[in-house]
Design goal:
The structure is a homotrimer of 346-residue chains.
Chain A lengths: L5 E2 H8 L2 E3 L6 E2 L1 E2 L9 E4 L16 E4 L11 E3 L3 H10 L10 E2 L4 E2 L4 E2 L4 E2 L4 E2 L4 E2 L4 E2 L4 E4 L2 E2 L4 E2 L4 E4 L1 E3 L4 E2 L4 E4 L4 E4 L2 E4 L6 E3 L4 E2 L4 E3 L6 E3 L4 E2 L4 E2 L4 E2 L4 E2 L4 E2 L4 E2 L4 E2 L4 E2 L4 E2 L3 E3 L4 E2 L7 E4 L5 E2 H11 L2 H11 L10
Parallel strand pairs in A: 4-5, 5-6, 6-7, 8-11, 9-12, 10-13, 11-14, 12-15, 13-16, 14-17, 15-18, 16-19, 17-20, 18-21, 19-24, 20-25, 21-26, 24-27, 25-28, 26-29, 27-30, 28-31, 29-32, 30-33, 31-34, 32-35, 33-36, 34-37, 35-38, 37-39
Antiparallel strand pairs in A: 1-3, 2-7, 22-23
């Protein structure tokens, strides 16, 4: 894909790493895993689970912690944070996207929309009334930008992204294919035995440097906006309900669901498949493990979990059957021995 | 967006509310939250969690229960159901969509399709062979309507909805962006060590006034149709398997998954992320709480749950470890004291 | 849809079934359920839950196990595997899709792409630079095929599928609407208080005969490819993280989430809504039940589960409250009786 190459010394200097054990003029032209690397590749070791692959690597250099250098058979690029350093090195070898400024002739742009001449609108995309696309933004093939949307400078919408209506993106926001931003929130009132739709009059505001995964949905607010502060990172298949507020630098793994009007702090990490009910608050720096359900506000930073551990089904069935009678059985045991148990309610 | 305004008295009369404490000629031009409202806004109080915001509101009027009126510093619109009343008031202020009847020149319509001259087909949409679009229906930008689909009067398909094949919508059905209705059900038979695809010959039938959320999927039936009765409301990212039947007025929050051939009653409420296994029946008026898994038929109306509560991870780990041995430990305790526990199986 | 008909004897011979109790010249023209069948229909009985419908069926023939034949009021087509036999019979009655080879005039094909003259590219689809579409492949309406993708012979992409970049499909791969294959993996490194995006330089390789459900996502690898071996079957709304490897013939039900770099064996069955954390290995022939979370590698084939059973909410709340104190309460009981419990850790 690319024939660009860099001397190890050049990489070390550019990213503040210490080159150890290597000739400064060794050149590399790509990145690879420890196990898959060959001559000309830079590999990295950050997750200890892969340490066993280090002695056999054929990489031309490995980015790693100083403590691992002794086990490395090839030149080392020593870093206090090998994963972050590797990310920067890998970016040197990314293939450029083949996009040019301009509006593809098959795209449909409303006469009242405003598209910068330095933006790119891909084939079969459409831009709705009164929407604005700033300079450097890339609107991928088959994207639909609805009415009254703002797309800030240098945003990248991959193929087939939908901004429904009243979606405002800051700068450098990146949205992946299939994402739907600004659909109606799920607002219903029961009225004489039938559902009545509650109009969704708000929008969505997304801060600078956010990234939103494939097929993720962020509904627009009922009255005020749904808000992502800057540098929020959402993986794929996530559902964000209306009027949710997500603090800066929070990251969520795939398939998380956040119900309406929840407020989530800054620097939170939400594990895959976790759920957060509506109208609660989570403070800064909370980690929720995978597939846990948050049903109450959290006011203390830390790691939180729910669920039970995986077991062979035969064992699990016996334990699950006990769970169904847990209150009665523990109570009976306690009465039997005339004892008192620690209170079961917090 | 709009400069329409209404006198409070006019709103009270139109929706059967009691105006209390306000001059009948005060006019309002929009809706807002209690905390965000200013002059000219109607706010509402339905969820008690927001009662603390009432004394400080700057709204021109608040829709609320009679019991809350005493704490309201501004005119009250008293309602037996403030949320439903608010929904009706908010609808007065919805911006009209900019759609006109007609087929956008960039749309692709099969010669054998029939589109009412009073329907709207948006840019870059396509309508397949033998499909019908009735009067008043709106097909948003980039929608794909496949073969043999019927779209009833006044349906609204937002941008980028897909009806795959043999999908029949009643009247006033509303489908949000990214939804896929009528894809193949997941039918597989293992045959000599390889999967054999089971043809999916049915369709999908959706009743009047249903609403289907963004990126939600409803598979078509293997033989007979998958069915949503009237006024079913599905949030985003939901998966409905083939041959499921969902009773009228049932609502499901985001990320619910329903496996094939399950039958769900009327007026059920299924919480976010809940799962329902295949080939079971759930009676009318069942509520399933968020992220619960329904593995057996339910014959008694009521509220059902599974899972464990969220805890700090350190506590959770200890309890989860006990769960893995629950049957053995409770059994050992019971034997020790020569006692008998209540049976652990239902 | 079709008027093709077949004699029962002809069906029996074609698929190796034993016709019992029927005149060999009875003809059938379609398939149906036991309850819905009428004259001219073949029905089937595989799941014992439907055995009660057998005595009242009006089908012209039923595919079933020999043991059920005695209760069948109509001719039997006896099979050792009625569901697989039914799948083959049903395929006789599938309506042909209305696709013809050629590129629809509204499609946008990059000059550097290569599309076989025996392939079909539907309306409003786009094919990116350097991508290849082999003979017999069908690219549905509004699909987006990005740069550097290979689509093997006889693949079928339903409407509105997205292959983002560097996606290589084998032969006869079938992908349903809304699926997104090859989006950026979720790679982030925290760097001085802000997220740093890790470039995603790999692709996705999908083997022959795989099927991928509607709105399912498969991210491309960070360095090496994400891989599905042959005959993998994924239902709708599934999330597959970057660098996952899924062994041949494994099937996953809807809404499963697999985190990055997990390796899953062959012939595994993953239940709906289950989660699999990253960087673990699951051996061949593992079944995970619905909504279970796999947090550690599995080295022994078998069935695995987590979670608790559904209960009426009132009972569940009492038991869940006990779970929160399980370690303390069981410990207190054990101390009280001077006993020792089986260890709670494995």
């Amino acid at each position: 894909m690319t024939t660009t190459s860099y001397a190890l010394q050049e990489i070390a200097e550019r990213f503040g790493l210490t080159l150890q054990g290597g000739s400064s003029d060794v050149r590399v032209h790509g990145v690879a895993t420890l196990a898959g690397a060959g001559t000309g590749h830079v590999a990295f070791l950050a997750n200890p689970a892969y340490r066993k692959q280090l002695p056999d690597t054929h990489a031309s250099a490995v980015v790693l912690h100083a403590a691992d250098a002794v086990h490395c058979p090839v030149p080392c690029l020593i870093s206090a944070d090998p994963y972050a350093s590797f990310a920067k090195i890998a970016a040197l070898f990314e293939a450029p996207t083949g996009t040019e400024p301009g509006i593809h002739p098959s795209a449909v742009v409303s006469p009242s929309a405003r598209v910068s001449e330095h933006a790119c609108v891909g084939p079969l995309a459409s831009i709705g009334a009164r929407s604005v696309v700033e300079a450097g933004a890339i609107i991928g093939p088959a994207c639909v930008v609805g009415e009254d949307c703002d797309i800030g400078a240098d945003c990248v919408l991959a193929a087939r992204v939908t901004l429904v209506t009243r979606v405002r993106l800051g700068q450098r926001v990146r949205i992946h294919s299939g994402a739907v931003i600004g659909a109606d929130g799920f607002g219903l009132a029961m009225d004489a035995g039938r559902w009545l739709k509650v109009p969704q009059l708000g929008g969505v505001t997304i801060g600078n440097d956010c990234e939103i995964g494939a097929n993720t949905c962020i509904d627009r607010g009922a009255i005020e906006d749904t808000v992502l502060e800057e540098d929020v990172r959402l993986d794929n298949q996530i559902q964000i309900g209306h009027n949710v507020v997500i603090g800066a630098h929070t990251a969520m793994a795939g398939c998380v669901a956040v119900a309406g009007s929840a407020r989530i702090g800054r620097y939170c990490l939400i594990g895959g498949g976790a759920g957060i009910v509506g109208h609660i608050e989570i403070c800064d720096r909370v980690t929720v493990t995978a597939m846990s359900l948050v049903t109450h506000s959290i006011h203390v930073p830390g790691v939180y979990s729910s669920g039970t551990p995986l077991q062979p089904n035969r064992d699990w069935r016996r334990n699950a059957a006990r769970f169904k009678k847990l209150d009665k059985q523990l109570g009976a045991l306690a009465r039997k021995i005339g004892g008192r148990l620690p209170p079961s309610e917090d």
